Amino acid sequence: MAEPDFERAVEQYHLAIGELLRGNPEPQKRLFSRRDDASLANPIVPHARGWEQVARTLEHAASQLRDGEAPSFENLVTYATPELAFIVEMERTEVRVGGREDLAPSALRVTTIFRPEDGAWKIAHRHADPITTARPIESVLQT
Question: Looking at the domain assignment, is residue 134 inside a domain?
Fold first, then answer.
C-alpha cells in the first residue's frame, strides 16, 4: 500500500493529465521535477531531458490537444518507498487532436516515476506509448 501523501500526489497527477488533454499544460508542469535529470518520453517526442526540455514538450503536447474528456486510469502496478515511487497504468480518454473535429479515442501505456523534492512528490520521469496490447516481436523492427 502506498503512503497517503503519495496517493494524493497520484490524484493530483491524474487531474493534471485531464487538464493537459484540454490544452492546459500548467498543472502537469507544476508536478514535474525541476532537476536536470527530469525526463519525459511521449508518443510525440521520443525523449526530453531537463526541466526546460520537459516544459517545452508538455507545452507542445498540450497545444495539439483540446476538449479531452476525463481520462480513466487502470492501475497495473504501484510501488512506493519514502525515497522513490512509481506507477504503471493504462490511460484511456477521448480527445480532439490537432485539427480534428471529432473526439478520438486514445489509449496509452504509462510508467511514471516520482521522488520527494522539497517536501512534495515530483515526477522524475514519465514514459507513455501506445502499446496497450500484445504485439509480435517483428513489430519492433524498423523497415
Answer: no
Residue 36 lies in a domain: yes
Task: Give the Cα separation of 133 and 23 in Å (integer).
Answer: 27
Any alpha helices (H) in the chain, and if so which ranges?
Answer: 4-20, 26-31, 51-63
Q: CA–CA separation, 112 vs 126, rounded Å?
A: 4
CA triple 129-132-135, angle to 5 deg = 100
Residues 31, 116: Cα–Cα separation, whole Å = 11
Per-residue pLDDT tens for 41-71? Answer: 998 888 999 999 999 999 999 999 999 988 9
DSSP 32: B
Query: For residue 112, is it within any domain?
Result: yes
